Fold:
Amino acid sequence: MAHAFDPQSVNHDHLGIRKKTLTLADTKQYKLLQDSLSRIYNKLLIKENHYTNGQKVLIETISDHLGLAVAFNAFKLAQTNIAETEIDGYSGFEMFFISYAQKYREHLSEECIQRYILDYYHPLPRYRVNIPVYSIPEFFEIFCLDQSQKKEAYFSVW
Structure:
């Protein structure tokens, strides 16, 4: 669903037919969002002297940010008494983010890291977690983080 808003798909209608779907003002805002996201990911180190190519991973990063936002909103809507729910001492909201992070937990071989440098269209798994969570304002409240800890990676996707 989130890929419907990526740069390759945003100008297609619900039937997949290519047509202008954004107004001129929306197109300008979308371009600003893309540029901002590319700059954020360009600063992320893959390994010594090799950084993420923000433009190359743009399609996937937009989808990661939107997918997390949609999933978190759906989780909030689906839960009743979520504030009182605890699992192993963690609230339901904390478990949502912990589960999301576990999805991308892995140890990468040197060969795999080299593939990320050369031809992967996804950022490293840790960046698929550590950057999109900053787009969720509640993340800071849930983990009692100081609002000043918001990095430049925070921005509103919607």
